[in-house]
C-alpha cells in the first residue's frame, strides 16, 4: 500500500522543501516509486525541478478544486519520481475552498482515486502555516515528518503543531501518526542548538505520550548538517545526489532515506 | 507624523521577526517612540520579549476584530518601545475576518485611532504568507521593508511580493511605497549569495521601475551578517543591543537603524 507522508512545520525556512526534494530523490534512488505533492503557493518544490507550472497546465490547485486527477496533473521527473506542481493561485485556495463541501478531504480523496499508480510513497510539501491547506495534507497523510531547526522557540512551535495533529487525528483522520522529527541545518557548535536538541529528544523519549499520535515518534538518528551544496542544488534543477554525490548533504539525506525505509518497511 | 513600516516576505525564515525586534530596538535607542505589532500566529515577536500573551489579555486579534484599541492592547517594553502582542488565535483570523465589513482596513483604522500616542514608528511583523493578514499590514503601512536571504528563488519570490504590493497600492492604499530590501543572514563566501545579491541590486538600480511603488527603493547598504548572537538573544528576552552590544549583529542592526532614519527623516 502507498504511504503518504506530510512534511510540515509552520515555522518558516526550516528545511521542509529541501527535505521533500532530497528525501524523495533518496527514496526514488532505492527504486521505490515516489510522488511529490507541492502544496505551497511559493511553488518552491516545483521550481526546484524546473517546473514553471504555467497556469494552463493542470496543477495541485486543480486537483484540490476537483477538476483533475492526480495522474493527470503529475509530471514525471525520472523513472521512479513524479511531482504534482503548484502554481501561484494556491495563494487564494483557503478562501476558494472554505465552506465548500468536504473541503478537508479534497487531497485525501484525490489520492484514493490515484491508488492505481505504481507508487510506494507520496511526500507532501506544506506551506509555513497551520491553515486549510495543511489540514488537507494531515487529513490525507498516514505519517508526518517534522523538519526542525534548533531555534529557541522550536519546542513551543512543535507543541502547537502536535496539538493540530492530534485534533486532525481525533476529528478527520484516525490513522494519522507522527513518524519523527528530522534536525535540519544542524550546527553542532552552538550551545543553543544543543539545548534545544536535548529538549526535543527528551520530549519524544518520555513515556508520557501514550495515547497521542506521536507516541511512537522519535528524533531521527540521521541529522541534516548545514551544507551550502543543499542551498545550491535547487538552482541547477537537481537533487543533492545528482548535484554533488560526495557532499555532506548527499550523505545525510541518503542516511535519512535508509532510516525512513527501515522504520516504514517493518511497519 | 507616525511612519508605519510593514516588514514582509512570504518566504519563511528569512529574518523578518529578527529585523522587527532589533530594528525596533535600534530606533528606540535613538530616543524615538516605537510600537511593534505582531501579526504572526506563531507569536515569535511577542515571545522574544517574554510576552506569553495569555488568551485573556487583549491582543492583536482583538484589535483586528475591533474589540479593543491599540493603546489598550499595547504592552510597554521600555521608555521608547511597546508591543501589541499576538496569540495563537491569529491562526484563524483569515476565516474569521473574511467577508466582514472593511476587513482590509482593520489595522489601518486602529492605527488611525492611535494617532494620539507619542510614537514616531510602527513596525509590523508579518507571517510568511501573502494572505488577508499581510494585506491588512500593507493597507495600513506607509513603507515596506523586505528582509531577503540570498536564495536561488529570492528574485522570483520578490517579484511576486512586489506585484502584491502594487495591487494594494492601486486598490487599497495609494501612499504605499517600498523603502528597501535588507540582506539578512548574509554570508559573503558563497557564489550563490553573490549572484542573487547582484541580481537584486541590479533590479532596483534600473530606471525601468518608474511608476511602481518600488521606484524609490534600494538595497540597504547595511547588510545583516549571519551571527549566532542574533539567534541566541531572543531566548534571553533581550534585543541584540542588550544581549551583546559588541557583536556583529548589534553593529549591523545599529547601522540599519541609522540608515532607515536617514532615509525617512529627510523624507
Ligand atoms: N541543511 C541545509 N544546509 C544549508 N542550507 C539549507 C539546508 N536546508 C535548507 N537550506 C536552505 O535554507 C533555506 C530554507 O530551506 P527550505 O526552503 O527548504 O525551508 P522551508 O521550510 O521549505 O521554507 P518555507 O517555510 O519558506 O517553505 C533555503 O535557502 C535552503 O536552500
Ligand atoms: N543574521 C542572522 N544570523 C544568524 N541567525 C539569524 C539571523 N537572523 C535570523 N536568524 C535566525 O534564523 C531563524 C529565522 O529568523 P526569523 O525567525 O527572524 O525569520 P522569519 O522570517 O521571521 O521567519 P518566519 O517566516 O517563520 O516568520 C531564527 O532562528 C533566527 O534566530
Ligand atoms: Mg518550503
Ligand atoms: Mg517571523
Pick out its properties.
homodimer, binds magnesium ion, binds adenosine-5'-triphosphate, alpha/beta, 267 residues, 12 helices
Per-chain topology:
Two copies of one chain form a homodimer.
Chain A: E1 3-7, H1 16-29, E2 34-38, H2 44-48, H3 60-64, H4 70-73, E3 75-78, E4 81-84, H5 93-97, H6 106-112, E5 121-125, H7 132-140, E6 143-148, H8 154-171, E7 177-183, H9 191-205, E8 218-219, H10 228-232, H11 240-243, H12 248-265
Parallel strand pairs in A: 1-5, 1-6, 2-4, 2-5, 6-7, 7-8
Antiparallel strand pairs in A: 3-4
One magnesium ion binds next to α1 of chain B.
Describe this structure in words.
The structure is a homodimer of 267-residue chains. The first copy, chain A, has helices spanning 16-29, 44-48, 60-64, 70-73, 93-97, 106-112, 132-140, 154-171, 191-205, 228-232, 240-243, 248-265; strands at 3-7, 34-38, 75-78, 81-84, 121-125, 143-148, 177-183, 218-219. Chain A has an eight-stranded mixed β-sheet with strand order 3-4-2-5-1-6-7-8, sandwiched between helices. With 267 residues, chain A is an alpha/beta fold. The model of chain A has no long low-confidence stretch (mean pLDDT 93). In chain A, 52% of the residues are buried. Chain A is built from twelve helices and eight strands. In chain A, helix 1 crosses helix 12 (248-265) and helix 6 (106-112) packs parallel to helix 7. The first copy, chain A, starts with a strand and ends with a helix. In chain A, a hairpin with a 2-residue loop joins strand 3 (75-78) and strand 4 (81-84). The interface between A and B is medium-sized, with 34 and 34 residues. Residues 16-17, 40, 44, 125 of chain A line the site of one magnesium ion.
Amino acid at each position: 500500500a502507498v504511504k503518504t507522508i506530510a512534511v510540515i512545520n509552520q515555522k518558516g525556512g526550516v528545511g521542509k522543501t529541501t527535505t521533500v526534494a532530497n528525501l524523495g530523490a533518496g527514496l526514488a534512488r532505492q527504486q521505490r516509486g515516489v510522488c511529490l505533492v507541492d502544496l505551497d503557493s511559493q511553488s518552491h518544490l516545483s521550481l526546484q525541478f524546473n517546473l514553471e507550472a504555467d497556469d494552463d497546465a493542470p496543477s495541485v490547485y486543480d486537483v484540490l478544486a476537483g477538476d483533475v486527477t492526480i495522474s493527470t496533473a503529475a509530471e514525471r521527473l525520472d523513472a521512479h519520481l513524479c511531482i504534482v506542481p503548484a502554481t501561484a493561485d494556491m495563494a487564494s485556495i483557503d478562501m476558494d475552498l472554505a465552506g465548500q463541501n468536504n473541503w478537508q478531504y479534497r487531497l485525501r480523496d484525490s489520492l484514493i482515486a490515484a491508488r492505481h499508480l505504481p507508487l510506494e510513497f507520496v511526500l507532501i510539501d506544506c506551506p509555513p502555516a497551520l491553515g486549510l491547506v495543511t489540514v488537507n495534507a494531515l487529513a490525507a497523510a498516514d505519517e508526518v515528518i517534522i523538519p526542525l531547526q534548533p531555534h529557541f522557540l522550536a519546542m513551543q512551535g512543535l507543541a502547537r503543531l502536535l496539538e493540530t495533529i492530534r485534533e486532525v487525528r481525533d476529528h478527520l483522520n484516525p490513522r494519522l501518526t507522527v513518524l519523527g522529527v528530522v534536525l535540519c541545518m544542524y550546527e553542532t557548535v552552538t550551545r543553543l542548538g544543543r539545548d534545544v536538541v536535548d529538549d526535543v529528544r527528551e520530549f519524544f523519549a518520555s513515556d508520557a505520550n501514550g495515547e497521542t499520535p506521536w507516541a511512537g515518534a522519535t528524533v531521527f538518528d540521521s541529522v541534516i548538517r548545514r551544507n551550502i551544496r543543499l542551498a545550491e542544488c535547487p538552482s541547477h534543477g537537481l537533487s543533492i545526489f545528482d548535484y554533488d554525490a560526495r557532499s555532506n548533504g548527499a550523505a545525510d539525506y541518503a542516511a535519512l532515506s535508509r532510516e525512513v525505509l527501515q522504520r516504514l518497511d517493518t511497519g
